[in-house]
Write a structure and sequence with these properties.
There is one protein chain. The protein folds into two domains: 72 residues, no CATH class; 106 residues. α1 runs antiparallel to α2. 47% of the residues lie in helices and 20% in strands. The chain has 194 residues and is of the alpha+beta class.
Length: 194
């Protein structure tokens, strides 16, 4: 019998911002790319096509690639060009502001997936200034739920830990990095040749 996978997601935290804008951005870049291909030439259309593909890639990288999930042993924070894997047992603190900040072993890891919008931040500050105001609970906002849930998972991992928890590590998203670099260079070359 094989051992159960420990890298499978136990809990995924959905994004609190940017997904609809990301899909809309992909659609717009796709339409621009289709129009550039329809009027194909090595002149303007080629430059527009390169920019459209770069726009597609950057929309994916900035708005849709970032994700946050927990496995049985780790918290995985996938950012734009890298993925941080932090053992749950080493997490000291979790704070959700405009982004989610996780502190582990004196290092801080950030995820843009879960965060408060500017409107929510202003509303919270004005509510906190009122006399007798209570702080938000996990029932009130998803951000508080995520903060409390990750804290709970970290505490649980420390309590059930056997052996060393491991160390945090970062893996770079080389296809996205290479694609961005190639498209930027291609656009610069197109500008110089034009």
């Amino acid at each position: 019998m094989s051992e159960p996978r420990t890298d499978a997601a136990v809990e995924r935290f959905h994004a609190t911002n940017g997904r609809v804008s990301g899909y809309l951005g992909l659609a717009v870049c796709g339409v621009v790319l289709a129009l550039a291909i329809a009027g194909w030439s090595t002149g303007r259309a080629m430059g527009v096509a390169i920019l459209a593909v770069l726009g597609l890639l950057l929309t994916w990288v900035v708005m849709l690639r970032p994700a946050l999930w927990a496995t049985a042993r780790d918290l995985v924070l996938r950012g734009m060009y890298y993925t941080d894997t932090v053992p749950l047992a080493t997490i000291d603190k979790v704070a959700v502001g405009q982004v989610t900040a996780v502190t582990s072993g004196g290092k801080r890891y950030l995820s843009p997936v879960i965060g408060y919008t500017a409107r929510q931040t202003i509303r919270q500050r004005s509510a906190a200034d009122k006399p007798g105001a209570k702080s938000a609970s996990a029932v009130d906002t998803y951000q508080v739920f995520v903060e409390e849930r990750i804290t709970h998972l970290a505490r649980e991992a420390r309590d059930t830990q056997v052996g060393e928890p491991g160390v945090a590590h970062r893996a770079y998203a080389w296809p996205e990095i290479a694609g961005t670099a190639v498209l930027v260079v291609a656009f610069v070359v197109w500008l110089l040749v034009l």
